[in-house]
Amino acid sequence: MTSRRLRALCGVTAVLLALGFAVAATTPAANAAPGPLKDLNLPGVCNAASFAMAEAIDAKLKADGKADRMIRVDEPKKGETGYNDAAVAYAMVELAKLLKKNVSDLVPKDLTDNAKAVADAIDAALKWRSDKGDTILHTADLTGNEVFLWCLKKGNGHGGPDLALLYVPKGKAAKDGLWIAGCVLAGGLNRYLVSYDDRTFDFAKFVWYNEGPNPDKEKEVIRYTYEYDVAKNVLTITKEVGPYKEGKLAPHTTEVEKKPGPPPAEFKDLKLNGTQISLLDGGCGCPAQSVALAAANPALPWQLDLVNAPMTGSGTETDPYLGVSVRIVPNELFQLALPAGTRFAGPGADPRWEVVIVQDTLIGLRYRGYEPLDLVVGARIPAIAWLAPAPSPTAAPPSGPPSPSTAPSASPAPPSIPPSPTAGPSLPPSPPAPPSLSAMPSPPAMPSPPVMPTATAAVR
């Protein structure tokens, strides 16, 4: 039953892009280093139902005499067909709200059986698109290198629909881009992250986790991890197979690419040790979330905890919590968004966690433990920092000079990572959450499709 449940799951992606040409423009300055990993904010949905929605939007655009379309042929490369407009995800979220379902539960029949709701969802999405202006799923660094999140239709030598990340260096066209990651597992969960160079603030590294049910053995999963090092222009793919035990993946088989190299120019050429992995079919549909989240403690609201909340599941034996476990290694640095309405007030009581960056609603955290730490699904590590209420946005500015940073004095903060010049488009609130996780307090209803966009973005 667990396998059947997994096959119906939504896909959450933490996506770290790595495109494959050796392009000098993408190479950071010498002696620079990647900054903390942060969420790549590109919300999207990619499955059979979302393709049906894209077709319905195109029919509406055509009827209205508009020339533009969601689905594009021979884009982003010759032979491909797909879309990368967030209006599709917006319409899917709106439809889920109207039908009182989760985005991940929508199927093509929901569109054919609910014409009025579909029309209303499309009207809302096109109005949002008109108001927003740029709704293309992309983001850029300071130099002008870009990444695009595409939903690719099956064809051109690969399976599908597949959520895929395309890296396009500055001065290049999409046709010259490189595929650095993708969701290729049916019923897959996805999470994706990016880090910026701490000197140039250009893309430094991308990481994408794609995890789905093992079709050959019930209660086991397959996980593909894509890691793209921009400075070296090297994509490394790892495959792990095994069950979850005590909230973390316990692989009995691990296969690592023996000859990592530049990412491929064609999506069909995503391979692991010569075996094509893009022939597998994905098809999931719920928003991504962070691998690790900062959340206020339910019992002590001003205590900040580190959590790895489940992405789905009710916690029973037949419907267990599901997500992606991660391992945090000593000295690892990553960035977290603070809970809404709060600000950083000081380091927590746990000496293993050092706050080294404080930037408005973000903190950079370094793990100072001596041994690797497995952040299992459902884990909550208390007291990584203390919070205080955020000042009112209407409050008058202080008359005196600004107070010094509240970051620990023993660890002066390095330059903060600025937000990406082209942020991902915002999407509407998500539909109602599934049954609450009463057995495990966690941040706001993570198993449900979160408000779009979430910190990590796409729905697959």
Question: Summarize this, please?
Answer:
It contains 5 helices and 25 strands.
- Strand elements, count: 25
Helix proportion: 10-25%
Order of helices and strands: HEHEEHHHEEEEEEEEEEEEEEEEEEEEEE
Radius of gyration: 21 Å
Strand content: 25-35%
Tally the helices: 5
Low-confidence stretches: 1-31, 285-289, 395-424, 426-460
Given helix and strand content, the structural type is alpha+beta
User: Please, what is the average pLDDT?
Assistant: 74
Main sheet characteristics: 6 strands, antiparallel
Strand order of the largest sheet: 1-8-9-10-11-14
Give a description of the structure:
The structure is a single chain. The chain is of the alpha+beta class. The protein is built from 5 helices and 25 strands. Strand 4 and strand 5 (146-152) form a beta hairpin. The model is unreliable at 1-31, 285-289, 395-424 and 426-460 (pLDDT under 50).
